[in-house]
Amino acid sequence: MDYKIAPSILSADFGHFTRDVKRLEQAGAEVVHIDIMDGHFVDNLTFGVGVVAALRPETSLFFDCHMMVEHPEKYITEFAKAGADSMSVHVESTPHLHGTLQQIKNAGMKASVVINPGTSVELIKPVLSMVDMVLVMTVNPGFGGQKFIPETMEKVAELSAIREAKNLNFEIEVDGGITDETISLAKAAGANVFVAGSFVFKGNVEDNIKKLKDQLN
Ligand code: DX5
Ligand code: ZN
Question: Which range of residues forms the domain containing residue 73?
Answer without folding.
Answer: 4-216
